[in-house]
């Protein structure tokens, strides 16, 4: 079974731009969660989607948004990028909401 | 805020058992203890979880104290590839409110030759 796939692996953007990150969950998994990891704040929950609906949201500004498609694939978008948005963005999927999570390898975003 | 407390770092000799402690004194009756680890630049990897009984799988053993206020993850024969940050998390599985995992700072385990 293929694991959780995140694309792209690395990304460099300029302040003020927007970015879209993609996550393909394990086949059959319907729940997708997103996390941001920085050296200062560690791993922080962004949001979770289940059956195309956002079920949980972390404490991040409205510039961070996401969506889930009918095939369970998910995207997250960050608008008006700031230097502090530089981080490893991780996606995790599970078969059912609240079940065991499998993480992808992440997208490393650098904002310059 | 994280509901667990772990030491910041630990060392272990290769081939020896690594015992990683975790305090979760405010754990609720329906919360499980989960362990994940994160090897440098990769996503966290699930290791094991348990409610109150000791658990063992091919990766590790989990010992939970009788009062459930603390637990220990045991890697029986640590290898260099076990060098990672280990996270202890308490949560209620299969709950609509726990789609999020609350990670603390974790324990950085350094396995040395």
Strand and helix map with partners:
The complex is a heterodimer of chains A (112) and B (113).
Chain A (H helix, E strand, L loop, with lengths): L4 E3 L2 E4 L5 E6 L6 E8 L3 E9 L2 E5 L6 E5 L5 E5 L8 E8 L7 E2 L3 E5 L1
Parallel strand pairs in A: 2-11
Antiparallel strand pairs in A: 1-3, 3-8, 4-5, 4-9, 5-6, 7-8, 9-10, 9-11
Chain B lengths: L8 E5 L4 E6 L8 E7 L6 E6 L4 E2 L4 E4 L5 E6 L8 E8 L15 E6 L1
Parallel strand pairs in B: 1-9
Antiparallel strand pairs in B: 2-7, 3-4, 3-8, 5-6, 6-7, 8-9
Number of helices of chain B: 0
What number is the mean pLDDT of chain A?
A: 93
Q: Which word captures the global form of chain A?
A: globular
Rg result of chain A: 13 Å
How many beta-strand elements of chain A? 11
Shape of chain B: globular
The number of helical elements of chain A comes to 0
